[in-house]
Amino acid sequence: MATALESAATTSEYALMARRPLDPAQCALLVIDIQQKLLPPIFQKEQLVRNAQLLIRAAGILKIPALISTQYAKGLGETVPEVSSLLAGTETIDKTLFSCFGSEAFCALLKRLPGQRNTLLLCGMESHICVTQTALGALRDGYLVHIASDAVSSRTEWNWKIGLERMRAAGAIVSSTEMMIYELMRSSSAAAFKELLTHLKGYPSRHAAFEEIE
């Protein structure tokens, strides 16, 4: 059983990670198993796809490399075209183990990414299975992990939420699509933000103050 001192130390470490600002030069985006036969029963699937698209577009603008996985594509289908069309030229890693970190091909590709990519941004499905197991594998390997809570989901709302809780307890930072994007962009005057604004204009929670930005 953890002592009060150990619990306080763990809480302090988590707070330090949560305070650390996202740096595009240190990030990679993982797009996990958004597949044709898996998507239809997913809770709030339209939100998941829309937000995954936003993260992919932001990653492209900021030169953040993206990795994409499928779970047994022969049986569960390829990545849905709404997502794969934004990642043309990106190699898809097919796996049978639920964690991306169980795939040697995935791990090798991750290690070959340019720069010091020590922070992984996760979106995809299912929250309580492949996303959670990938997050846990990343944390064990020493990566900082941020989860876009509204760009992951499961077949049931309960499993979506319990997956997020497990990842947070393990040390992942549970965030949202807007939090990630605005933190990465840093300023409304940044050229990258203005480039992405066209896509943000359709976002339901976008602040009205940006209506006049061109």
State the main characteristics.
single chain, six-stranded parallel beta sheet, 9 helices, 6 strands, 17% strand, disordered C terminus
Question: Could you characterize the architecture of this molecule?
Answer:
The chain has about 210 residues and is an alpha/beta fold. It contains 9 helices and 6 strands. The chain has helices at about 5-20, 45-60, 75, 80-85, 105-110, 125-140, 155-170, 175-185, 190-200, and strands spanning about 25-30, 65-70, 90-95, 120-125, 145-155, 175. Strands 3-2-1-4-5-6 form a 6-stranded parallel beta sheet. Strand 4, helix 6 (about 125-140) and strand 5 form a beta-alpha-beta unit. The radius of gyration is 17 Å and the shape is globular. It starts with a helix and ends in a 14-residue tail after the last helix. About 40% of the residues are buried. Residues about 205-214 have low confidence and may be disordered.
Helix and strand arrangement:
Elements: H1 4-19, E1 27-32, H2 45-61, E2 66-71, H3 73-76, H4 81-84, E3 92-95, H5 104-111, E4 119-125, H6 127-140, E5 144-153, H7 157-170, E6 173-175, H8 177-185, H9 191-200
Parallel strand pairs: 1-2, 1-4, 2-3, 4-5, 5-6
Mean model confidence by pLDDT: 90
Query: Which structural category fits the helices and strands?
Result: alpha/beta
> What shape does the CA trace take?
globular
Report the count of strand segments. Answer: 6
Separation of the first and last Cα atoms: 55 Å
Summarize the entry for a quick read.
This protein is α/β, with parallel strands linked by helices and 214 residues long. Helices cover 45% and strands 17% of the residues.
